[in-house]
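Protein modeling request. Please complete all fields; requests missing the sequence field cannot be processed.
Requester role: graduate student
Desired output: 3D structure, C-alpha cell encoding
Chains: 1
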Amino acid sequence: MDGKQRRAEAVENLKDVFVANIYKPGADKTGKTTVGFEFEFLQICDGSFLKNLFHADLAKTEDSYKLDNYAVGTYELGTDYYDVIEMATPAMLVNTTDGVPNWQTIAKTIEVWKEYFNVLFPKNYQMAITQFHITGNTLTFDNMVTALNNDLQCQLIYLPEADVEAKHMTLDPIQLPSRTKITPDKIKLAVLSDLKEKNNVDGIAPQINIQVSSTTAIKLLMLGTKHDDLKGQTFSDEVGYLKKLVNLHTELLKTLTSDIGDDEKDINNPSDKYIAAHIIAYYLTSVTGIPAEVRAKVRQETKVIFTEQLRKPLVQKRAKIARKCWTYTHSWVKDVAHLWIKCTPFTLIDGLENPNNVVEQIKILAATDLSNDSHIKFALENIGAQLNYDEENKNFIKNVLGELTNGSKKVDRAAIYTAYDYNEEKYAEDGIVQTKTVFENAKSAFEYYQTDYGQWARKETFLPDLSNKELVVEIRDSCFLNTVNEAWKDGNIDCKKV
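Delivered output (498 residues):
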C-alpha cells in the first residue's frame, strides 16, 4: 500500500471512529458522555519563528459551542512547553455503562488519531512530500493546517496578530523568543518536524478530557494512585519534582489509611473513610505546588520586561548559574496519580453518593497531625527544598527586580507580586516554610470544611460546575489509560491488572 492509500485509509478510520461522533448541540446524551483530546504531535525546529514560544494560541475553527459552560466545539492548534505543537479536538460522544465511559472506545480513538498523525507526518518528512505532493521541501505550519483542514473537513483559521506575553515565555532565561509579535504570516512559514522525546515520553502524547461523575472520578483517582510507573526511572530537576510530589502523595495515603481494613479498600465499593483519605491526600499534594506556581508567574512577568537585559552575555551568564530559579516545577501538580481533577475538592465531594458521610470522615482525618509524621515531614521538606534558593539564585532574583525597579523601564515591582496575591517578603521566604504553610492552611480548610478556601492548585485548572453534578477529569498519559482499559471492564475493576 503506497503513502496516498495509507493516508486515505487513516482518514476514513478517523472519520468513522471520531468525526462521525463529534458532539453537536442538542444531541441526545442519554447513556453517553463527552470526551475531548489534546495531542502533542509535531516539534518546532531550531531557527523557526515559533521557537521558544510557550502556550501560544495559533489557529482554531470557528464552529465554537459549549456544553454546560465547557467549550467542546473547536479544533485548536498552539504551542506547548518543549517546543511542541499541540492540537485540541472537539468533544466526541462515548457510550457509558452506569455512568462509566467505554474505555475501549476511548483507547481505540487514540490509536486511530496516532495512526493518522504517523501517516500524515512520518519520521522521514521528505517521503511525505513525495507521497502527498506537498509544496516545498520542508514541513511548514501552513502545510500542516492545509492537510488537517482537508482531512478533518474543518476550517482552521489563523488567529489575529498578538503581542508576546508572559504566558508565552519559557522559564529558561536562555530560551527567549526573538520577537515581540505573533503574526499569522510568519506562523505559516514556521518549520516543523516529527515529535522528539519530551519528559521521558517518546512520540505522540495524548491527554484525555472526560466528563464524569464524582464516583467515577474517585475510582480513577484510586487507580491512578496504584499505577505508579515512576519507579526506577532517572529524572531531570523538573521531572524530579513530580517524583517528590508522588512521594508525598504516597506517604499521606499510607498514614491516612493505616487503620482502614482491607474490606474497606475495595475500589469497586470503597468505604467513605477510604474515599476521604484519597481526597485529602490528592488535594494536599496539589496544594504544595502553589509556591512554585507563584514563583513561575513572577518570573514570567519579570522576563517580559527584562528580555532586553537577559540578551546581554553577562546577564545570561548569571542566569545560567542561577538555573534553579527557572526550573519548571509548577505544572507537575497536574500529574499526581496520572489524573487532573478539574474542580475543587468540595465540588467533587458534593457529587458523591454520601457527601455528608465523606465530609465527616474528612474532618476526622484532617485533624491528624500529618506534618509531624516523619515520612510526611521529610516529603514536604524535599518538595520545599526544590524552591530553596542558594545565594547565587537569590542574587540573580535581586538583580532582576532591581533592574525592573530602577532601570530604564520603570516598573512597580510590588504590583507584580500583588497581581498574584504574593508579596515580596513571602517570595523571598524559605521554600520549605512556604510549602509547609500552604499545606497546613489547606489541611485546616479540610478539618473545618471551609469551602471558600482560596486556592487548591493551579488557579486555571478549575472549570465551572457542570450540570447533573458532573465534572471534568483529564487522564494525563496513555500508559495510565491503557491500565484503566485493561482493569475496568463491564462496570467492574480488576485491581490485579493495575
